[in-house]
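Thread: "does anyone have the structure for this chain?"

Original post by V.I.:
We have the sequence but no experimental structure in hand. Need at least a predicted one for the grant figures.
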Amino acid sequence: MTMQILVVDDEPAVTDLLGYNLRKAHYEVLVAADGRQALQLAAQERPDLILLDLMLPQVDGLDVCRELRRTSQVPIIILSARDDEIDRVLGLELGADDYVGKPFSIRELLARIKVVLRRAQPAAPATVANLLAGPGGLRLDSERREARINTTALDLSRLEFDLLYLLVANLGRVFTREQFIEQVWGYDYPGDTRVVDSVIKRLRSKLRALDPAADCIVAVRGIGYKATQNGNL
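Reply from O.Q.:
Generated one for you, tokens below.
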């Protein structure tokens, strides 16, 4: 089945360029020229991925990203001339999967799209061995891709679930940011390793909101992160 990509940008030159190259790469393309239209199309058409500009009429791109994440885990790649670190980090913390500054390379963008879409594919069927227990009543089921703390479900993105599962499956092992990129994002992910910190921060916030004891993730200074059975040690 052909995958569908929603391009959200108010510059016709950009949407024309992206539309041409995406169709050439065998994607279906939808186009929205403002944030309100983007939200409407996302709800109606349920695209496989969204390319989202930040500086939009009607509704700002960051607000679009925030609103989408309330109801959907559709992969989002932000495309923006606002390439300041604060905008990049905020976009990732709101749930975007990647952030590409303008001007960008079409070849690189297509590579990033491929990686993000691959990460969004359903996991292969799991066995009983893939049911994991962590501290604070944390339970992970990779077959159903469900995370729970006691009886309460955790609303996790695909990246958040995969990252947490990797850590809990390897309690005590320290992973570098590069290892996370290789094992969770994919070995050919062309993005910035700082995306790991943004996803970890978002993930820990969700864990602590339900039960502080379930926050088993610990930063290892100068190296990366690990998970511990007791949490916060």
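V.I.: this helps a lot. The chain has eight helices and twelve strands.
O.Q.: and The chain has two domains: 4-120, 128-227.
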